[in-house]
Amino acid sequence: MGAAGWDLAVTDFQLRWTDGIAVLLGVKARWPDCPVIMFTGSGNEEIAVQAMKAGLDDYVLKSPRHYARLASAVHMALERARQRKALREAETRYHSLFDDVPVGLFRIV
Q1: 43 versus 1: which is more confidently predicted?
Q2: Terminus of the chain with fewer CB atoms < 10 Å: N or C?
Q3: Distance CA 102, CA 28 (A)
């Protein structure tokens, strides 16, 4: 997990060395903007809720009828991450323009 430059992380809940919640928290601690999807057959609703509260982007069950949903979950998680990044960049530009202007500005909200 030490390498940077990921676009997305996909984890299972039940791993030999840890669990998916620990992986999620580790990824979010190092790369808060990296989307994480849990693709598991061993979780339950309580685990899904706990993971979503911790910042999980999507939860997909490992069963033949849900396999096709993984591709759309990945696509949507990457799109939401791209939108969040664009929003942050726009906010930064706005604040920079507003704060760094050499004349006085007045704003009415």
Answers
A1: 43
A2: C
A3: 38
